[in-house]
């Protein structure tokens, strides 16, 4: 069996690029962008760190709703391919003001709808909690509202927190609710990393100009 660290898709170099609170602050487009979206506390930062092969590059927090901006990270794979991973603000955290939530939603929608370099969006769902109304709204937005119509990859996080006997049934239920296949992941065990990178790389190949 090939060591994952030696696989072509394995990330050998990763770094923070920029953080943007407005569209005017977005960094210049410099290659395919892969965005990650999900509810607050869904495990997005942990999954990003796992994909980047770093423990603390993407800030994690026990406080939901911590991320209030778009954060860009450069990643270079062992085979030389390079990407920008984009951490989108988490949604659905009720303790933020309505004004803040509207502002974040507007920023995310504008980015998703206008960014020409965007090739794929990974939508994270908590394997334990199913598809919420806000999750469904995001999936609908991606299917109908994004100008570039990025490839959508749905991921179930925290699969390790399900009993093994329940995992398959829970994933099947999520797939039915989301209306598409998904990848089960765990930031603890590393489950799903190769599958996500293969899907992301295929998306950039399919959507390349």
Describe the structure.
- The protein is of the alpha/beta class.
- The chain has a single domain, classed as P-loop containing nucleotide triphosphate hydrolases (Rossmann fold).
- Helix content is 33%, strand content 23%.
- The chain is built from five helices and seven strands.
- The protein has a seven-stranded mixed β-sheet, sandwiched between helices.
- It starts with 10 loop residues before the first strand and ends with a helix.
- The model has no long low-confidence stretch (mean pLDDT 85).
SSE topology:
Layout: E1 11-20, E2 33-38, H1 44-52, E3 70-77, E4 82-87, H2 98-114, E5 118-126, H3 133-144, E6 151-157, H4 164-178, E7 182-184, H5 193-207
Parallel strand pairs: 2-4, 2-5, 5-6, 6-7
Antiparallel strand pairs: 1-3, 3-4
What fold name stands as the CATH topology? Rossmann fold
Distance between the termini: 35 Å
CATH architecture: 3-Layer(aba) Sandwich
Q: Mean pLDDT, as a whole number? A: 85
Strand element count? 7
Number of helices: 5
> Any low-confidence stretches, pLDDT <50, length ≥5?
none
């Amino acid at each position: 069996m090939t060591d994952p660290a030696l696989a072509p898709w394995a990330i050998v170099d990763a770094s923070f690029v920029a953080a943007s609170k407005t569209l005017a602050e977005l960094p210049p487009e410099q290659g395919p962008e892969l965005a990650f979206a999900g509810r607050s506390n869904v495990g997005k930062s942990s999954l990003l760190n796992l994909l980047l092969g770093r423990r603390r590059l993407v800030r994690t927090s026990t406080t939901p709703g911590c991320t209030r901006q778009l954060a860009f990270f450069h990643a270079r794979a062992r085979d030389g391919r390079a990407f920008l991973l984009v951490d989108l603000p988490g949604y659905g955290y009720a303790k933020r003001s309505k004004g803040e939530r509207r502002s974040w939603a507007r920023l995310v929608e504008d980015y998703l709808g206008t960014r020409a370099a965007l090739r794929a969006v990974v939508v994270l769902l908590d394997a334990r909690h199913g598809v919420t109304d806000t999750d469904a709204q995001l999936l609908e937005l991606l299917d109908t509202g994004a100008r570039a119509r990025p490839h959508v990859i749905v991921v179930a996080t925290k699969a390790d927190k399900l009993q093994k006997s329940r995992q398959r049934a829970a994933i099947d239920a999520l797939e039915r609710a989301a209306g598409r296949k998904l990848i089960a992941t765990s930031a603890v065990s590393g489950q799903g990393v190769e599958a996500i990178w293969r899907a992301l790389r295929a998306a950039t190949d399919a959507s390349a100009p």
